[in-house]
Every structure is written in C-alpha cells, then in structure tokens.
Design a protein that fits this description.
Number of helices: 7
Order of helices and strands: EHEHEEHEHEHEEEHEH
Strand content: 15-25%
Largest sheet: 8 strands, mixed
Distance between the termini: 34 Å
Number of domains: 1
Structural class: alpha/beta
Oligomer: single chain
CATH topology: Rossmann fold
CATH architecture: 3-Layer(aba) Sandwich
Length: 215
Amino acid sequence: MKITIIGAGNMGRGIGYRLVAGGNSVTVVDINPESSEALAKELRSVAKNGGSASSASLESAELGDVVVLAVNYGANFDVAKKLGKKLDGKVVVDIANALNPTYDGLVTAPGTSSAEELAKVVSSGAKVVKAFNTTFAGTLVAGNVGGIPLDVFIAGDDEAAKKTVAKLITDGGLVAVDTGPLLRARELESLGLLGITLQMKNNFGFTTGWKLTRP
C-alpha cells in the first residue's frame, strides 16, 4: 500500500519502520527536506517484503491511500488545512496527544480530543483514524517490548478505514486493537498522557508499552 508520513521526527521514524517492514511503499514529507530524505534512506535500509521509501515536499507529494500525520497537536490541523481537498478519500491517521507545556495534562476541552477536532478540520471526504498515540518511538522501531509485540489502539467512525489501518499494523508485526468510534480517542489520548507521565515519574526511558491481555 502507498502511505505518506508527514513528519520525519521520532514518531515518523518509528511508524515508518513498521510500515516498510510490512512491505508498504512509504513517502516521507517534512518541512526540512534533508530530514525527510535522511529518514527515507534509513527506511530503505531496513525495508522488508518489498517495502520501499522515498521523500517529497508537502507541495509535490502524491499522497498515498493513507496519510499519517506524525506531527504535534496543532501542527496536525495546520497540515490538514494546507492539504485541503487533497485529503478527499484518504485515511488520515492522527497520532497527536494534546499535551500542555509541562507534559502533565491535556489542553483539549472535556468531551473532545485531538482526533475529533481534526475530523472537523479535514476535508469532508477524509476518514480520520486515531492510532499510535499510546506507543513510543523506540518501541515502534523495535516492534516489541521485552519480546512481546506492541498493541496499537485505534479508534474511528469509518469501519473500512479502521480495517485498513489495522492491516498496516498487523503486517508490521504489531497487534491492532479496535477500541470503537472516534470518540474513544478521548480515552486513548488520556492513556497516552498517562504513559508519558509514568515514564517521567519512574525513569522508564519511554521503553514501555500498554498491553491488553486475556486468559
């Protein structure tokens, strides 16, 4: 599948590792062309199963079927507005946690989330899915914590879009957990916040992962 990752930072790198491991064609876009090409080169070196990677500018990129907004809260809205109608028919993955400056709270109002706010900003033909906001960059590169594959929690209102994202996750060696409609992004973003605060409190070094288990 053709996927566009917007943002060549740590999370873009981690998600990119999983996508090229699953045999997908990834285009990396970043405000800094050197950063996007450097990440694309790195991803090409670790690609498996026919996966590939290239870089492009936001203006010239031919968007893939899935567009991952691997950028911070606020920047996700800016990118969506710039892309406008180019996002029609695309699955748009929001990974943002709306963190306050001290990383101990969310700035979104009660009863909403980054993903739900994004859904109001993107073109009407785009399908927003929340994913990857509860996973850390380093664990995504590894694909596991202590040998156990990562769980990636997803939420969205379009079932086909969620299935598309779930397949990307499982093809990359991870476990997709469908949590329900997009309003569940509220709890997922709170879970993301909790995971971040636990790292800082316990000096975990962003090496942990949430796992849904059953007997």
